[in-house]
Amino acid sequence: MLHGKLRIHTCRVILLTSLVWFIIDVIVLSFYSDCIGGACKKFDDNDNTIVAEPLIDENSFNEKQEDSINEPQNRGPGLEGMSQTYRPNTLKRWRPAPVVPQISGRPGEMGKAVHIPPEQETLMKERFKLNQFNLLASDMISLNRSLSDVRLGGCKQKRYPALLPTTSIVIVFHNEAWSTLLRTVWSVINRSPRPLLKEIILVDDSSEGVFADHLGKKLEDYVAKLPVPVHVLRTEKRSGLIRARLLGAKHVQGQIITFLDAHCECTEGWLEPLLSRIVEDRKTVVCPIIDVISDETFEYITASDMTWGGFNWKLNFRWYRVPQREMDRRKGDRTAPLRTPTMAGGLFSIDKEYFYEIGSYDEGMDIWGGENLEMSFRVWMCGGQLEIATCSHVGHVFRKSTPYSFPGGTNRIVNHNNARLAEVWLDQWKEFYYNINPGARSVPVGDISARTDLREKLQCKSFRWYLENIYPESQMPLDYYYLGDIRNVESKNCLDTMGRKSGDNVGMTYCHNLGGNQVFAYTKRQQIMSDDNCLDASSRTGPVKLVRCHGMGGNQAWMYDEHDRTIVHVNTGSCLTKPDNSDVNLPVLKACNREEGQQWIMNSDFRWQAKKNHNDER
Ligand SMILES: *[C@@H]1O[C@H](CO)[C@@H](O)[C@H](O)[C@H]1NC(C)=O
Ligand SMILES: [Mn+2]
Fold first, then answer.
1. CA of 186 relative to ligand 1 center, distance in Å
2. Is the pLDDT of residue 47 over 70?
3. CA 335 from chain center: how many Å?
4. Which structural domain, as residue segments, surrounds residue 420?
5. Pick from 397, 420, 443: which residue ends a domain?
6. Which Gene Ontology CC terms are recorded (predicted)?
7. Atom 8 of ligand 1 has which residue's CA nearest to it?
8. Predicted confidence (pLDDT) at residue 92 exceeds the cutoff of 60
9. Mean pLDDT over residues 226-240, rounded?
10. Rounded distance, CA 583 to CA 156, Å?
11. Does residue 57 sit within a domain?
């Protein structure tokens, strides 16, 4: 009995003491928080230090209130967003890393191009084959090479929060060259504020042959001496990017995971903008601007801050120009984070817990391809946001061809991955993918139930919502009447892009019913489009060209009359007509004459999708 009472008493004392400490904590924290809010003195023990104030971006604050895609309770800059997601005592005080000094006389300093003397050209070509970049040039450049500060002027003045979370850098590689891999590592060490850099995790996805020599024990011995903890993990067999990244992520000890490619160079101030966005809202996935390191000369070339990520019907990731709509949202401020519909996928930061909450990666995907779009759609549709921090620049060696082998064949793997992505996330718009790429229909997608369950569990929005709210400029039209081939009544032939590029004439040939180059969409905006090109005519007699869709009507507006079956070019009033005898593969534009050569059928396998609106529209 006595024991029992004593125990209860002890418990009470412990509870009370804890309570007192808790209250003290809260008081201290709230005082401290006021400091963060900017009411306190600045953190100025060094003239060059970034000031201890959060990045309060008035523009985005106003924006957030009127914008329906944000959940206000989780958003808002500064403290509210922060205290809900990161406890201040887990964050770190930091200072910008010192500028990497130029080593005079070394090739490639300040990001300059390296030119190989003619007598070494044979050797250069020999070495080029190993990695599909100029390895000889790379080997001549210091691992610590200096770079110029490529940021916009406004970025250099930006103030970031005084306290930021730590990050682990995860770098996956397969058969990587020594100098590019280690230059990536050194650029991270040299240009990241040290308190924020928890560790670097290198994941060797089963490098083979000559690569195994330097990427084995030699690498482990080398990284053991580096001034930052660097771990080398290895997959047992070739696992591909996705599974190797998951292995790396599993060992992450920092609060944020930053994925980098293995042939990158981080520039001055690259990390702070990424971490700052996440500390404001942990459901933000942030990419740097990916600059170009020339595969020929290793010159550092700044990329545009006016491009964002999109995708085409084939589900290839593509860079497109940022539309005016997004520039307006940012009030014309090019240093403000850019909301991008998709990301390239190689380089980004994400909160570690959020990475798992949102479903990490689709483990049913193989080797490479599609995972970046999958994550992009998932983040947007399931309540997160995807941004490019235009003040963060990381260079990447872009290659003209891949040096990697794809067990099972590149096409098969990419089709498999993209088909999974289409099945899980694209809803009815998956038809655009299957129609333009009919080969994907026969590739087994495997079991996707775990991913569809995830979509259900996270209560993700529809792809229509994504197209309406995040990517109205998409090449996949939001509203379309028809998707399929366009057949001439008289000749029985079909319109065909012949695989031609923007600026070329559209063609016509026998109907093969396989989709591909014969698939067109007729959209609510009166476009006749194939992937990112639209039928376009600039005179009443043609020619009819494929031109990159601009969405502004004009020369790209066509009116299909279901009853007459004519396709009338709105600007000129001319009718799309079957080819003349002069060129049997070239449809033309002529004055309308009601003959069968001007009648077209859009009804093969596909349904009219928005018939009601179709009539309203006219
Ligand atoms: C890079 O610079 C650091 C000092 O900033 C030095 O310790 C290190 O040895 C250098 N690394 C190489 C490979 O030159
Ligand atoms: Mn790469």
1. 8
2. no
3. 18
4. 410-469
5. 397
6. Golgi membrane
7. 144
8. yes
9. 95
10. 59
11. no
Domain CATH for 430: 1.10.8.460
Contacts of 174 (CB under 8 A, 6+ apart): 204, 205, 206, 207, 238, 244, 404
**Is 81 a residue whose pLDDT tops 90?**
no
Ligand 2 geometric centre to CA of 66 (Å): 39
Q: Is the CB of residue 228 below 6 angstroms from any atom belonging to ligand 1?
A: no
Q: How confident is the model at residue 21 (pLDDT cuts 50, 70, 90)?
A: low
User: Does 33 score more than 70 pLDDT?
Assistant: no
Same domain, 246 and 186: yes
Q: Which CATH number fits the domain that encloses residue 611?
A: 2.80.10.50
Q: What is the CA radius of gyration of the chain?
A: 28
For atom 13 of ligand 1, which residue has the closest CA?
A: 143
Q: Which residues have CB under 8 Å from 7's CB, separation 6+?
A: none
The verdict on 285 and 137 lying in the same domain is yes
Residues 200, 206, 211, 216, Cα dihedral to 10°: 60
Task: Specify whether 129 is located in the same domain as 33.
Answer: no
Residues 562 and 437 grouped into a single domain: no
Residue 186 shares a structural domain with residue 252 = yes
99 lines ligand 1 (CB under 6 A): no
* The pLDDT of residue 279 is above 70: yes
Q: Which atom of ligand 1 is nearest to the CA of 182?
A: 13
Ligand 2 centroid–CA 524 distance in Å is 39
Write the CATH number for 366: 3.90.550.10
What spacing in Å lies between the alpha carbon of 200 and ligand 1's midpoint? Answer: 17
Give the tokens for residue 591: 């004055």
Residue whose Cα lies nearest atom 2 of ligand 1: it is 144
Given ligand 1 and candidates 100, 106, 143, 144, which is best to mutate, with the most ligand atoms within 8 Å of its CB?
A: 144
Q: How many domains does the chain have?
A: 4
Q: Ligand 1 centroid to 146 CA: how many Å?
A: 12
Q: Best of 139, 185, 186 to mutate for ligand 1, by most ligand atoms within 8 A of CB? A: 186
Same domain, 306 and 343: yes
